[in-house]
Amino acid sequence: SFEQSQLLQSLPRQFFASLVKKVKKAVDDGHDIINFGQGNPDSPTPKHIVDRLKIASELPINHKYPPFRGHDYLKEAVSTFYKREYDVDIDPKTEVAVLFGGKGGLVEIPPCLLNPGDTVLVPDPGYPDYWSGVALARAEMHMMPLKEEHSFLPQYDNIPEEILQKAKLMFLNYPNNPTGAIADLNFFNETIQLAQTHDLCIVHDFAYGAIGFDGHKPISFLQTPGAKDVGIEIYTMSKSYNMAGWRIGFAIGNPSVIEAINLIQDHLYVSIFGAIQEAAAEALLGPQECIDSLVETYQSRRDLLISGLHEIGWNVTAPKGSFFAWLKVPEGFTSETFSDFLLEEIGVIVAPGIGFGEYGGQYVRVGLLTSEERIKEAISRIRKLGIFLT
Ligand code: PLP
After folding, report:
1. Which helix (H) or strand (E) element contains residue 109?
2. Hey, how many other C-beta atoms are within 10 angstroms of the C-beta on 341?
3. CATH of segment(s) 6-44+289-385
4. Residues lining ligand 1, judged by CB closer than 6 Å?
5. Does the complex come out with an ipTM higher than 0.90?
6. Where's the Aminotransferase class I/classII large domain (predicted)?
7. Atom of ligand 1 minimally distant from the CA of 126
8. Residues of the chain with CATH 3.90.1150.10
9. What span, in angstroms and rounded, lies between the C-alpha atoms of 250 and 234?
10. CA of 251 to the centre of ligand 1 (A)
């Protein structure tokens, strides 16, 4: 067998692969498992989107190579969507890149913009794909802790001046995976000021843009004046339209970053199957009731989980967006020992917070991706454990 390159070996290990193995083993052993561990939406893609794919897949035009950088109608649909939803003007020709899911863009951006040894500001806890792109670019990470007492927003005043001098890129993500926190306009204003002062490029990951609770509609980074001068936003169809398997998303914003992403993609791929591009445009421009019902589903699951946990004496904070709850583990446990404990004692799977970074080490993430019946069942199993979170 052949040796792996140093570059490949330098990539962070995929922490959640071990979680998937544990789940498989527990299921194979015949346990009745309730899986809150993963982030895969459990509902199907809305029918009108699937129907559009079916029709589009019959069209010979879609059997040919699509344009390298994606169809114009799709980028125009993204522009219309941003105007309609956020009142933001986007030039479809220069300010939109079509991605193979949000993941594609997040991993591609660091090698597009960084040289070896450059510094990147990364939220901790955070989505692990940020680390992968940084490793591919052979750049360095400086972690920005997201703490509960600061509503899980990074405190820019705490970043050492010499790091800010060196930093070239910053990842942010609101609504946040894993903490369920949201950002407001003030925070984004502060971010833009920091970016302008230090010549930083901001990548705002808006994967959960559609999912806000208690009537709150998450704000787009691009709504903040000056945002396009300093960065981009990643929008994905995966969570908003239950299209995780379709692998399509967008980078939107600063034209020089969009051009860099397009350039690297020119070398790596020809764009996505045309029928998927048509279906994605249909999702963005067609009926939007599917989003209302998706948000309602997650809202009732969130309410059920949080009120159920409160009833049994667990003092947990309700997430404001995304589809995750972020729970502090009881005294004496780490995120890993508590996850193992829940799996072994009551067959409930949660994601250990350490998988999202060092600051996640005292938390577990609970995904709201299972039915209300199963959430109730999980709470009744937890009640029997007789342990408390305060
Ligand atoms: N960003 C965050 C914070 C996520 O949680 C996910 C998926 O779980 C993604 C990006 C990537 O989504 P996709 O590649 O399916 O668009």
Report:
1. helix 101-113
2. 16
3. 3.90.1150.10
4. 39, 101-103, 127, 173, 177, 205, 207, 236, 238, 244, 249
5. yes
6. 32-382
7. 3
8. 6-44+289-385
9. 6
10. 13
Interatomic CA distance for residues 120 and 214, integer angstroms:
34
Neighbours of 258 (CB within 10 A): 22
Question: What are the tokens at 113?
Answer: 């913009």
Position 3 pLDDT exceeds 60: yes
Architecture of the domain spanning 47-285 = 3-Layer(aba) Sandwich (3.40)
How far apart are alpha carbons 93 and 79 in whole angstroms?
Answer: 10
Residues of the chain with CATH 3.40.640.10: 47-285
22-59 pLDDT, tens digit per residue, is 888 888 988 899 999 988 899 999 999 999 999 999 99
CA of 234 to the centre of ligand 1 (A): 9
Q: Are 318 and 213 in contact (CB under 8 A)?
A: yes
Pocket test for ligand 1, best of 16, 40, 127 (most atoms within 8 A of CB): 127
